[in-house]
């Protein structure tokens, strides 16, 4: 029987445990090797481990909505979700190189991942519309693209992290025809025809709009993160905000440079000495 997640210690794993990151939000978990699924406590997404019905390669599928189809990461076949659920796989059948988002870094329950694509960037070689992953790991903020790591900065270098966009909105449009006609009968007929035309041409358009901007030293990245609602992303990224605030609080304040002028002798004599802004130069003539 699987243990509840809350009883699983997030420590170094033995052979009977497997380290897995949530594919939706990036939170790290240690799972018993025989588990075939887990629910992320951070974002609520359920992840299922399956063996591909076609090629038998074990893989993890994160699902926020349990309908539709899922694609095999190995052979590319796309099958209904229900078909995949007939082939559960234990966690230790997964490729260890693929269960972690950043395999070299320590497992971290407070790690967060934002998936999307680059809208604009000051990082050389990072072009608009490039799919990217922004990972807020324990000590680093890492931006990855298909070709590999594009940027790695420390939390103390992050000067701002902002979430924007209007979120998901739906618009309904139609031909906008109003009824009319001569006399009462004509008007009623006209209105009936108009409503038929409007019903036939009615369209609902759904627009997703979530943006994330990161500034760190000379680097700035604006990315589109439409998989997440802005309000949910703000809560999801609270561990990342906490780490940025902690790093800022521990940053060494730079002492203000004393202005050039005459000061008491730092050696302790009764004479005054002149500070030119960089070094002590001369004694005040008595
Ligand atoms: Zn999650
Ligand atoms: Zn396959």
Notes on the protein architecture:
15% of the residues lie in helices and 35% in strands. It has 286 residues and is of the alpha+beta class. The protein has three domains: 5-98, no CATH class; 112-167 and 208-250, Roll (PH-domain like), CATH 2.30.29.30; 172-203. The strands form six sheets. The protein has a seven-stranded antiparallel beta sheet with strand order 11-10-9-8-16-15-12, covered by helices on one side. Strand 9 and strand 10 form a beta hairpin. The termini are far apart. The chain binds zinc ion (2 copies). One zinc ion (ZN) binds next to loops. One zinc ion (ZN) binds at residues 52, 54-55, 57, 72, 74-75, 77.
What keywords describe this structure?
single chain; 286 residues; alpha+beta; PH-domain like; 3 domains; seven-stranded antiparallel β-sheet; three-stranded antiparallel β-sheet; binds zinc ion
Secondary-structure map:
Elements: E1 17-21, E2 28-32, E3 37-39, E4 46-51, E5 58-63, E6 69-71, E7 78-80, H1 81-84, E8 112-121, E9 131-136, E10 140-145, E11 148-154, E12 158-164, E13 169-173, H2 183-201, E14 203-207, E15 211-216, E16 219-224, H3 230-236, H4 238-250, E17 261-264, E18 272-275, E19 280-283
Antiparallel strand pairs: 1-2, 3-4, 4-5, 6-7, 8-9, 8-16, 9-10, 10-11, 12-15, 13-14, 15-16, 17-18, 18-19
This protein binds zinc ion (ZN) (2 copies).
Residues 22, 24-25, 27, 40, 42-43, 45 line the site of one zinc ion.
């Amino acid at each position: 029987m699987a243990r509840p997640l809350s009883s699983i210690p997030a420590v170094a794993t033995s052979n009977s445990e497997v380290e897995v990151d949530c594919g939706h939000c990036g939170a790290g978990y240690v799972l018993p090797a025989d588990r075939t699924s887990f629910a992320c406590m951070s974002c609520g997404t359920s992840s299922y481990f399956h063996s591909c019905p076609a090629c038998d390669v074990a893989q993890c599928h994160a699902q926020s909505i349990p309908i539709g189809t899922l694609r095999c990461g190995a052979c590319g076949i796309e099958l209904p979700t229900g078909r995949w659920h007939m082939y559960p796989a234990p966690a230790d059948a997964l490729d260890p190189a693929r269960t972690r988002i950043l395999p070299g870094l320590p497992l971290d329950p407070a790690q967060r991942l934002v998936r999307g694509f680059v809208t604009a960037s000051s990082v050389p070689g990072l072009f608009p519309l490039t799919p990217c992953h922004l990972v807020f790991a324990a000590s680093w903020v890492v931006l990855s693209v298909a070709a590999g790591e594009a940027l790695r900065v420390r939390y103390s270098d992050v000067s701002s992290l902002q979430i924007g966009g209007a979120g998901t909105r739906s618009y309904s449009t139609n031909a906008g025809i109003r009824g009319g006609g001569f006399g009462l009968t004509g008007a009623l007929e006209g209105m009936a025809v108009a409503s038929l035309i409007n019903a036939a041409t009615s369209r609902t358009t759904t627009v997703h709009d979530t943006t994330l901007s990161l500034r760190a030293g000379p680097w700035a990245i604006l990315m589109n993160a439409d998989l997440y609602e802005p309000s949910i992303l703000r809560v999801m990224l609270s561990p990342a905000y906490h780490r940025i605030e902690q790093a800022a609080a521990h940053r060494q304040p730079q002492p203000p440079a004393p202005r050039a002028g005459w000061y008491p002798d730092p050696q302790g004599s009764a004479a005054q000495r002149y500070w030119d802004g960089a070094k002590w130069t001369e004694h005040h003539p008595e």
